[in-house]
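Late entry, evening session. Most of the bench is empty. Finally got around to the prediction I had been postponing all week. Sequence below, unchanged from the version circulated by S.P.
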Amino acid sequence: AGALSLAGDMQTTAAYQSADLQMTIADLLVRADGETQIQEEDPVVLNLRAALQEERIQLHSLSLSARPLALAMQGALSKEDALSTLEADGRLTLDLEVLAAYLQTLLELDIVMAGREEKPFRIAATWQDDAVAEGLMAAEIEAGLHADRIETFGLVVEDLTVPLRMQDRRAKVALTGRVNDGEMNVRPSIDFAAERPLLSFPPESVLLEQVQLTEEMSNELLANLHVLFRGASGVLGRMDLEMDYFEWPLAEEHAAYRRLKGALAFQDLTIRSSALWGTLLQFARVNEREMVIGDERIDFELRENRIHCSPIRLDIGDDEQLVLAGSVGLDQTLDYTASMPVTLGMARSVGVSGNDYTNSLAGTSINVPIRGTASDPDIGAHVLRDMAADLARQAARRAVEERATRALDGLFGRPRPEGDGE
């Protein structure tokens, strides 16, 4: 919504028409969902100088001035029989700080951006009268973007350069820059000419290298891939993101053809605490400690709409490890299992004596299911209670079996195994 005003001059002769127009929108109101809105203080101004002669429109100049962007271009649109041709070039400036404010307000996205650099662009397209959209999709486009700084999801991206080229219905982008004191080299492409138009990355790509980990990055990004990072604090270390292959059809009807395989390679990874880690250690009756994981590689692969991760082993005591493995669905549902040893503290918590633990439960393990969603993992209290009760039953049953065996050994005079004392 806004107040529109139009002014200008038009001239017409038998063979020639020209226009010099200015359109202004004052008090522009931008709405996103019927409630969220932005009131623009500065007017949006569009200036146009063009001429029409026979089958050719000559665009002498087109300029757009608004708070988030400034555009200046020139070009021509001509037609011969049923074939139309468009050629235009110009320069585009985006004010990223203002654009970030739009995103914060309209999308409730936590993002900060800085940069306002003018970049050239060019477009060339041809189409038949009955295939305008198809012709524009096949256009040749060259453009670019530069950002001094972008902060979001725990990532600080600096000196980001984004050239774009589209040709033969294929778009290629290169995002390069510094991210969290590491390197970004992301080169996606979109193939609109394929039987199933898709987004892909070059095979065997290293998208991120030596990126410094942060708590926000762990919780907002990594937790969507692996449950270990949900609720993590005191996160230290660096990370590489490797992509063996990534093929993502754009149409939902082609979802069965999605392919994704890669790895997170961590260096010197330490997590002081996390909600999941604390719950599991409390159940194991182990004093909470930080996870000193060190160098660890987590391989992941998309299978049947779930991203499966390789097991990760975490030390919880002397020669004792917890193994965490499972998957997260594209719908963010969790299907993880924590395989953990039955500790003496765990056994004592359910009334199992030291001797019964040694004879019955030492060396055994239990599997704790982790369900819920990536944003809200659930280790149900009832599950832990059922497991505790089952441990007690196992220990009692094995203790009875042990006493019966000993009684039979004494009755029939069978020798006891060496070292089997009371």
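Two things to note before I forget:
The helical segments are 96-106, 132-137, 215-220, 275-284, 344-349, 354-361, 381-412.
Residues 146 and 161 are 5 Å apart (CA to CA).
Will write this up properly tomorrow.
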